[in-house]
Structure formats: C-alpha cells, structure tokens
Amino acid sequence: MGKRKTQRKNMAMLDSDDDSCNSISSSSTMRSDRMSVSGTEEVELNKDSLLDEAVDALYEKRGSTREKALSSIIEAFNSDLQRQFVEKKFATLLHQCLNSIKKGSSKEISLASHVIGLLALTVGPGDNAREILEESITPISQASKSGSESSKIASLLECLAIITFVGGVDPEETEKSMQIMWQTVHPKLGSNVVTVKPSSAVITAVVSAWSFLLTTMDGWRLSPKLWQESIAYLSTLLDKDDRLVRIAAGEALAVIFEMGSLEKFAAEAKGSNDGSISEGNKSKEGFSHIQGLRGKILNQVRGLSVEAGGKGSAKKDLNNQRNLFKDVLEFLEDGYCPETSLKIGGDSLQTSTWSQLIQLNFLKHFLGGGFTKHMQENEFLQDVFGFTPKRRNLLGSEHISNGQKRMYKSPNSVISKARTQMLNKQRMQSKDRNFGHFSVNAGDEDS
Fold first, then answer.
1. What SS3 state is found at 80?
2. What value does the mean pLDDT take over residues 19-30?
3. CB 365, CB 372: distance < 8 Å
4. For residue 380, what are the contacts with CB-CB under 8 A and spacing of at least 6?
5. 259 vs 327, higher pLDDT
6. Distances (CA, A) of 21 to 13, 169, 243, 399
7. pLDDT tier at 17 (50, 70, 90 boundaries)?
8. How high does pLDDT run on average in the chain?
9. Three-state SS letters, 178-204
C-alpha cells in the first residue's frame, strides 16, 4: 500500500507586512517608535496590575470571587506569556491555587488546576517546574478521589499530565503520575472502599492524559504485567458506546504499537521458559494470549475504520473516528504514521509520529485559545516539536523587557534549562525507542 499523508488543515492566522511603511522619514519613525514603546509599557503595567489584583483576590473568603479571579488569570496567561509576572509571583500563585484545590468547589478546583498547568508551561523545565510537581501531586491525587464530578476530575488529571510532562525528570515520577491516573478507573479495592463507576468523560480524560505521558516514556522499562493490564483494558474500551472513549483508546494503542512494546511483551512471553514444564506451559499460555489480543485489536480497528453512523450520532465525531482508525489500521498493516501539518501564523508545525501527534492534540486541547500564542513565543513548546517560527526575533525587539532578555540570554535561565532538559530527553528517547509496526501476518503468528 502506498504511503498516504494525512493533512489536518487548520485556518491560518495571517501576518500582514507592508513594506511601504518603511519609507516614512527617520525622524517621524523614531518619534512614533518612542510612542509605541511607551504605550506598550503602559499596557504591560496595566496587565501586571490586573494580574496582581487577581492574585490578591485568591485570598478572599467568597468562593465566587476566587473563581472569577482564577478565570482572569487563565485569560491573561492565554493571551500572553506572563514571564515577568511569574518571576515575581510564582510561589504565591502556586500555593493559592493549591489552597483552592484543597478547599474549593468543583468549579474552583477545575480553574485552579488549569492555572497550575499554565504556570508550569510558562516557567518551563527547571527548579520551579519540579517544585510545582512535588507540591501539587498529593493534593491533585487526593482531590481526584473525592467526589464524582467529571469536569473536576478531568481538569485535575490534565493538570497532572502537564506538570509531569514539564517538571518530571525521572521516569519513576512519570510512572507515579500515570499510576494515579490509572487508579481513577481501576481503584485499588479494600474492605472499606466503595467504587463508583467512572463516567465516559472521566475515562476519556484518564486515557488521554495517560497516553500523553506515555509518549515521554521508554516503554521497555515498563513491566509486562502493566502492559497486559493496560492493553487488555484499552481493547475493551474500543467496544464502548461512547465514541470519544473509543477514539482516546485508539490513540493510546497507536502509541503503544509505535513503541514496539506489544512485540516486546509477546517476545518475553515466548522466551521466558526457564526449562521447567510448568514455566513452559505458562510461557505458551502467555504468548497465546498476546497473539489472540493482537488479532482481536486488529479486527476492532478495522471495524471502527468503516463504522456506519448510528442513530443520533454526531457526524463530526463519526468522521474523526473513521479517520483515526484508518490511520491506525494503515500503521498496523504497513507501518506508516500519519503526517500532519498545522498552520501557526505564517509557519507550519509538522508531525510525523504518533507520539508527536498525541502531544500536539493534548496541548492544543489544554491551551485552547492560547495555543497559537504559546507556540509562537514559548521556547519550551517550540523545542518539544522542533518548531521555530521564521519571524521570531524577540531578542532584537526593543519591546522586550530586561527581565525577559535575562531569561533568554542566561545559560542558567529557565528557558536554557528547559531547552537542555527537553533535548536530552528526546535524545534518550530516540536512542532507546524501537519504532516498529504491528502487522499481524500468518508468518508472524507461527514464528
């Protein structure tokens, strides 16, 4: 089968250039530039004062006041990268948001979780990001176990995924966060534990956040038992009625296949015979189980790629499902990953692996209206995707503050540390990851 490139087209944000503006006399240009700089500084001061007021409002007793303040902070972080503000108010903002998570309403918890995620993306990897993860993981875990509001739980898990993605250095930290997510749909049962069946929205959020963190892991480190549990569970989700659940499960399985982890699991099961008859029988049973699971998943994927619309089904979701599972099927049978291109301003952000696509979709969803701004100015995210805007000339701009210049120029800055850490992580991934495809042929079954 020939290679098919999947293009997900987005509306481009156009930059306008008018060279005729450069013909104005030098004296008037200098005068207008001074006015422009002055006006920009005034706007920045106004933004900072509004943010200061919003942070102060987080100390108020009335919950609705805190909710309104958190909404204002989210809007400010989406519209601009608040680097200077974060330099001054990092600790205050973090701990007030954690207080909201501990004692606030479901709405306040959702908003505070989103602010913490935005805070992590703004500071980038480094000491502050590690502090966010270390201080937040316990309150987030506890809050996700209390109550059953789907939107609250989804926000908490999305936040956990983001702060682990940015601040997690050791694989054990990422595994811990993934385990917290897993326990939301598979709680550890005890004599005094009453289980509440998770909603479709919660299952979708768990699987999406779990998959997002899986893209940063070396799958060969994870135990065969964990793979067997996760793959079997994801296979059951492909049969669920909720289409968004099926899509999330399909994306998760695509990442697992890309990592070559199922093949590794099957090879371990086949080769784990230590000579004893009992162990040999267990090995054969385990290998047969994996082979059966492989075949089942392939059939499920094939069916979902051509599913007819059911009564009352949303056409958009149906098309998204068909397109996704056609891509997954092509990958399983021929080893081709979907290639995507997304317009950001006048530049294109391209992906060529499932891991990149999952990361892109998750971050687009989390950042919402702030995605374009972050991709144009957030060097951490640019490093994640290898994306360099052609018009990025921040250091040469007279509008950038001295504090921002320090953040970019210093080798010990947050930005520099972010770049170093992310590049190191990517190098380790490229070294260890085994990209293979998940074809199921008669010859493979017998081998």
1. coil
2. 36
3. no
4. 121, 124, 125, 166, 415, 418, 419, 422
5. 327
6. 21, 48, 52, 19
7. very low
8. 76
9. HHHHHHHHCCCCCCCCCCCCCCHHHHH
Rounded to an integer, the average pLDDT of 411-418 is: 46
Closest CA to 89 of 104, 77, 103: 77
Amino acid 197: pLDDT:
83
Residue 408 DSSP class: H
Model confidence at 3: pLDDT above 60: no
Does residue 85 carry a pLDDT above 70?
yes
Return the residue matching tokens 């000579």: 275
Cα 436 from Cα 447, distance rounded (Å): 17
Residue-by-residue DSSP string for 306-362:
TPPPPTT--HHHHHHHHHHHHHHHHHHHH-PPP-EEEEETTEEEEE-SHHHHHHHHH
Choose between 76 and 196: higher pLDDT. Answer: 76
Which long-range CB contacts under 8 A does 403-406 form with residues at least 24 apart?
403/83, 403/84, 403/87, 404/83, 404/84
Indicate whether 354 pLDDT > 70: yes
pLDDT band per the 50, 70, 90 thresholds, residue 262: low
List all residues 6 or more positions away from 397 whose beta carbon is below 8 Å from its beta carbon. none
**For the ranges 188-202, 293-307, 430-444, the one whose mean pLDDT is highest:** 293-307
- Beta partners for 344? 347
Structure tokens at 380: 């951490």
Q: Quick count: other Cβ atoms within 10 Å of Cβ 30?
A: 10
Which segments of 67-114 are extended strands (E)? none
Nearest to 108 by CA among 119, 120, 96: 96
- Residue 398 per-residue DSSP state: T
Locate 153 and state its tokens.
């739980």
**Helix, strand and coil in the chain, % to nearest 5:** 70, 0, 25
Whether the CB-CB separation of 154 and 202 falls below 8 Å is answered with yes
- CB of 381 within 8 A of CB of 388? no
Q: b vs e for 203-235, b when ≥16 Cβ sit within 10 Å of the residue's Cβ? A: bbbbbbbbbbbbbbbebeebebebbbebbebbb
Q: Which amino acid is present at 182? A: W
Which pLDDT score, from 0 to 100, does residue 270 have? 56
Tell me the DSSP string of 122-166. HH-SSHHHHHHHHHHHHHHHHHHHS---HHHHHHHHHHHHHHHHH
3-class secondary structure per residue, 225-252: HHHHHHHHHHHHHCCCCCHHHHHHHHHH
Average pLDDT over residues 425-442: 44
What's the rounded Cα separation, in Å, for the pair 113 and 311?
Answer: 36
